[in-house]
# Entry
Amino acid sequence: MITTCILCPRGCRLTIDEKDPHTVTGNACPRGAIWGREEVTAPVRTVTATCAVTLPAGMDAPARRVPVRTSGPVPKDAVIDLARELTSIKLSLPVFAGDVVIDNWRNSGVSVLVTRSLDVCTQN
Amino acid sequence: MRNRYDVAVIGAGAAGLAASATLAREALSVLTVDREESPGGILPQCIHDGFGLHRYGQALTGPEFSARLEGEALLPGNDLRLGTTVLSLFRDGESWILRLSSVHTGVYEISALAVVLAMGSRERNRGNVRIAGDRPSGVFTAGLAQRLMNIDGFLPGKKAVIIGSGDIGLIMARRLTLSGVHVQAVVEIQGYPSGLARNVVQCLEDFSIPLYLSHATIAIRGRQRVTACEVAPIEHGAPVLQKAFQIPCDTVLLSVGLVPETELATCMGVTLDPVTGGPRVDSRYMTNLSGVFACGNVLQIHDLVDHVAAEAENAARSCVAYVRGEYVQNVPFVSLECAQHVRYVVPSCLIPGSPGILSLRSLSVLTSARLRLRDTQGTIVFEKKLGFIRPAEMIVCAIPDAAMIRCTEAQRLIVSLEDDEQGGAPS
# Structure
């Protein structure tokens, strides 16, 4: 398989043997080799999304969505499901960066965390 | 409220925050203003990760990167005023007077010995790229769509076409898809994607979104709302209208480039560089106006926010020297000329004794590039092997002190990018 490593902006063009032991060439760093092997055996992705904010009447906030991220990568084929689930979650303020939104999603060992601290402010 | 500061920083995005942090750490009194109610500039709406790999060794999301910079900028000497716009700026003897308009306190003036311009950039829109057709609703610039989605909580539409394959467009292709919007295609006029290769993988290939390279957008169609984009392949440099086809959609996102926000700079009399669109600066990041510095996207459009923060810190350090009276007036400078393959270089001249950090972009994709600085005799004064370079990725090169001494002995330096593979012919 020929693909581009996504770990850093360099984007090394990798050639990965789809057969064991999945030799990787084209990587400029060791992390790329690990990523390449994972990509042909069990591809994973980090997911970022936003959750809704429930606002009390008369209150506003610097943003109406709370940005969230997975603590680590999840299987690539679970990304759409997770994103759909996250988009429909409603959170009340205040939230703090690092707050856990979903703990150990589907027993993956990966949690979903808030990435921006937000609190209410009175509407102008 | 004080009305006298050492430095006024205009903008509290990545550049403004990093600059003001450096200034305040050096015990200068700083006023940092931003027209938004939250700091961070564009970062709070960039909810995806990949920021901070150089600066913090981690892949942070935009809000997380912003929080780090905000923490660094939270210093007693840094007066951060949000919801504040700079209406005008003019010289008064040795100081600069800023006329400010605050949402909270009205119009007032402050004075500062130096000013750091960090206003960032604006997006090019449909008018700039002259896409013909109807004028229905549903046409957004990609950054606006990103703000509407990630900050305001609106979905821009249900079925989108993205024009332009820059990083913003690619990132939005993924964002829209993960929010349930069908992204029909990304249309790119060049023969190669203009964003990072990794974004083509994680934003398009991951979701099987078609990428039409070498395709021009002929028209946007629709009456009240967009109904389709009309697209045609480019052959021999021109769109082939007979091969035009329609891509049905109700939303169009334009990702067709950023331009420095220079309204204020122009009013002040700052000389702009016609290629970068931002102010011309010397290697101290100072513009033609004494005590006025520029950094970040307002100076040149960056690809990585890590570079923005580093550039802002360098500009701030120069500003510190200026405020402390360490600047020599009428100092000789060495002008930099762009030659082979170089689209632009920042700064436009080198001042002896200042750090020689060059930021440049190539006009072409080169596989085995070498950066060369030559004097008027053609002697190579400095060179660096760069490897694979492309127009979409800014090249940042620090000239070591020893080489800087050699560079600043020349009258003029010619900057070129040469491809070793092709024998590297001199300009």
Observations:
- Chain A touches chain B through 35 residues (CB under 8 Å).
- The longest strand of chain A covers residues 48-54.
- Chain A has a mean pLDDT of 93.
